[in-house]
Amino acid sequence: MNYTCSNCGGSFDVPETVSVVTCPYCGLTVNIKVGKLDFEHYFYPAIYDAQTAYGRLKSILSRQFGVPKGFSDQINLMGRVLHYIPLYLFYVEGRSKGGQEVLEVEYVALPALKMLPVPIPQGYSFPVRGKIYFKPQIVKDAKFYSPTVSIDDLEKIARARVYNRFSRELDLAGRGLEAKIESRCEGLVHYPIWEFRYSYLNYQFNGFVDAVNGEVLYGQYLVSTMHRTISMSLGVGLIFAGAIIGLISGLALSAPLIGLIGGVPPAFAGAIPLFMRGAYKVQTYTLKVFGTYEREASLGKEIIEAVKFIGRIPI
Ligand SMILES: [Zn+2]
What count of other Cβ atoms lies within 10 Å of the Cβ of residue 196? Predict the structure, then answer.
């Protein structure tokens, strides 16, 4: 179905199943069934401008193991895009059932896209403070995305996140209390993430930086030939050592062949990551998030299904 934006006049396709849509050109968000928006729409201004965000990316890349000297000074910036990702914001409240009441209140923001155009680590915590009411006039030259995941599916994840943490706390308190969860959707938030495309020699890379807190989410870089050679030699050395150890233990049992067979495969398995590192010149930095993401799936099948929605487009 084709839809024309009432703010900027841009027209775009809308899936039949979705009711809340965002104009990709100006970011105006409406419920097309009601004709306006029946909840709040916020956005985060980009605190980190393109230059500062790119500086953060270069600084992370220059500190990676095996990156050529001067890599971050010699890369050429080829293009940049400010992606505005839709997040649904949920207010979630946990209460204990029975006994003395324990209360926990939390805001949870989750991406509302089935396929993310940017590599957001699973379990990444988006800030909930600092958002402002959306006005299409203030946003220029950014790419907006319309939500593609239903509010209900995301709300299950938000509830599960709080439920798990809260019920663990209640368990620790050890009074046999049960968690009861209340929640509501507080609105849609568009969240800015920078994408940079850059080149070095004949290679092209991309990197992503959170435009609100300056966190580098993802970045590709080159690993120098010398480092690759070292990795390769380590791999060969590991297999060789495995063969020797296998042979020695085999000789001790007067069955050298069996020893050899026993020694090589585990050494080979150990060497594979080293070979992989050696065989590819392009390496990737990704932000590590230590969260409780896996445990969120423990609440039920429908939540696992909802979590599965949040894949990402391979880069
Ligand atoms: Zn528009």
Answer: 21
Instruction: For residue 126, report the distance from its CA to the centre of ligand 1, in Å.
Output: 25
Q: What is the per-residue burial (b if ≥16 Cβ within 10 Å, else e) of 286-313? A: ebeeeeeeeebbebeeebeebbebbeee
Q: Amino acid letter at 220?
A: Q
pTM value is 0.72
Kind of pairing, strands 311-312 and 115-116?
A: parallel
Strand-pairing partners, residue 173, are none
Residues having C-beta closer than 5 Å to ion ligand 1: 5, 7-8, 10, 23, 25-26, 28
Of 232, 105, 23, 173, nearest in space to 240 by CA: 232
Ligand 1 centroid – CA 190 distance (Å): 14
Task: Report CA(113)–ligand 1 centroid distance (Å).
Answer: 19
Q: What is the pLDDT of residues 261-302, one digit of tens each?
A: 777 777 777 776 666 554 447 888 988 775 444 444 444 444
Q: What is the pLDDT of residues 80-114, one digit of tens each?
A: 999 999 999 999 998 887 766 778 888 888 999 88
Distance from Cα 47 to the centre of ligand 1, integer Å? 23
